[in-house]
Amino acid sequence: MGDRPAGKLPFNSLQALREEADGCTRCDLYKHATQTVFGEGGPMASAFFVGEQPGDKEDIEGRPFVGPAGRLFDAILQEVGIDREKTYVTNAVKHFKFAPRGKRRIHSKPNAGEIKACRWWLDQELTLIKPDVAVALGATAARALVGRQVPVMRLRGDVVESVEGVPVVITVHPSYLLRIPNAVDKKRERERFSEDLRKVKALMSG
Q1: Where's the Uracil-DNA glycosylase-like domain (predicted)?
Q2: Which of 43, 146, 169, 184 is least surrounded by Cβ atoms within 10 Å, i.e. has the fewest?
Q3: How does 167-179 read in b/e, with b if 16+ C-beta sit within 10 Å?
Q4: What is the pTM of this model?
């Protein structure tokens, strides 16, 4: 499971790919995570959103973007008029990486090796879906899609090209908005994120 050579596409459906990913051992993160958290969305999705990794709630439920950041993301999608049915959401790394703190599990940033190992799954998702546009939600997602480190704050709102040639809109992760303590700054950054998603909407077909 999960050790097929990169560059080959042995799957003809997202369901088959998801089932294969359930047993992924391409890096060591599977040893401590509850389960693989694979992407969700239709096979004809126009916009392909990539986050960093599952959080604690996603790890437990086995679904991406279901925590507080995911709920904020859904709300802003609705505000800017992006149909959730036309999106696919996934993560650059599909197992939760964390450091235990008592009874809590604190998010730890994936390293370059873990991103590279999981990039194989992301490649299969992109190949099957063929979206009009991909969206990098944060630095880890940008690195996975573009193949190198990307200065997110400097390129935020810009369109670059993925390894596969898909247009990629660079923006922040919704969790960034939740961490802003000042109400005025939070409102401003939410408006900027909404504007980034309007650029995504303009690149979507239909």
Answers
A1: 38-198
A2: 184
A3: ebbbbbbbbbbee
A4: 0.92
